[in-house]
Amino acid sequence: MPVPARYRARRCCLAPNRFTLAAVQPEIRFRVPGWVDETVGWDRIYSTDDERAALAIELARRNVTKRTGGPFGAAVFESGTGRVVSAGINLVVPANNSSLHAEVVAFMLAQAKLGSYSLAGTEGRRYEVVTSCEPCAMCLGATLWSGVQRIVCCATGDDARDLAFDEGPVFPESWSYLEDRGIEVVRGIRGREARAVMETYRELDGVIYNAT
Ligand SMILES: [Zn+2]
What we know:
Layout: H1 34-39, H2 49-65, E1 73-78, E2 83-89, H3 92-95, H4 102-114, E3 127-133, H5 137-146, E4 150-155, H6 157-162, H7 172-180, E5 184-186, H8 191-203
Parallel strand pairs: 3-4, 4-5
Antiparallel strand pairs: 1-2, 1-3
Helix pairs in contact: 2-8, 4-5
């Protein structure tokens, strides 16, 4: 069957080498760069919050130095064993996708890996996210819907705002809401180190990609 004309890309008569927008939507895919897998100790036991935070920050740092995205990293861990389930980095600019914050990337990869839309403790396991910076409004919501039962943060939302990243509507009540839903919140682990990664990003003239 021929493709209806309205679905075909058409050449623009004013600029023949350019196409007008076709009435079909693209398939969305993303893949983290190979260095992410190499950064994670997949067989390693990350016993403490400090060790887990160090990984999240290292992901953020390498994302900056390798110029593969914004200054944020996150990882999902199996809380009891300390094993890494997934590792995410900020891919907003390279993927042209405002939703691909490090936490969201980590949740997507963990859920795909485990074959479940929820990380809410299948077979007695509990999961947690460790992020190099306190989440923005979107990622705070994604944390709730991901099913993780613990969140550990490094730099603060104020650190991000100082460096011109908009965190959106995150209020003290937002944190309370998570805690009331049974999510343990730990903040301020290796905070200075995580902030320094954001400062490096700014010094390297990294794109600050807020909504406005
Ligand atoms: Zn976010």
